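Hi there,

I know you've been waiting on this one. I reran it after we fixed the sequence typo, so this is the corrected version. Both the input and the resulting structure follow.
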Amino acid sequence: MRKFKRIAGVLILFFILISTMLYFIQEKLIFLPTKLHQEYTYQFSESFEEFFLTANDGAQLNGIHFKKERSKGVILYFHGNAGDLSRWGEIATYFVKKDYDVIIMDYRTYGKSIGKLSEENLFSDAELFYHYALERYAEEEITIYGRSLGCAIATQLASNNRADKLVLETPFYNLYDVAKERFSFLPLKILLNYKFESNVYIQNVVCPITIFHGTDDDVVPYDSGASLYEVANEPKEFITIVGGGHNDLINFKTYTAAIDAVLK
């Protein structure tokens, strides 16, 4: 009995230790930014303008605005959880080559952007960039596009506005849904400071919704994206990329053909 109590005590201590560690390092697990010097010069294959927006709390947010001479509209692009605009800007030129303007921001602590991270701040920053777009485009010309973590930000933004369409690439149902795949033994609903409840936001989206997800995604499970689709309003479309992973959907004809149809 004494040995059993000792083992049980060790397990409880281990459980508390792991829970405490997760609580304090969760931001480092969710966000994987790389930083750029303020003097860094972007170089992209398409014409662009760099700009900064100032948030209500004084945070400086860096953005890139790609412009075509005659664009079909603008894509407001919210990128994934790793890297910075030097990488994501080049990824976004895929849409510029299709004659769309693209506005893409770096989140707080990413690239040249500075400010305190929080879920509330990320959402208000997205709204700031949406208003930047509204000053230059009609709302029916705006497509909101999210990728991975950016899908939660894009969905919340779309739920409060009337953009032309919402496109989500490899989205998750909510952050808890993803975290439980790795930490199912922990009380995640208590520990997580970030919720990213896309399943709630998407029910208030009234524009057409398109979701892309690969069957072999090892970061965000395919079922998580499928579950998000189930609670979305019509009109909606779910595009399955057979064999697609988390970062390679652009290599599949299913994606390239479907995105052309969606943007038209």
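Quick highlight: The chain has two domains: 1-30, 32-263.

Best,
R. S.
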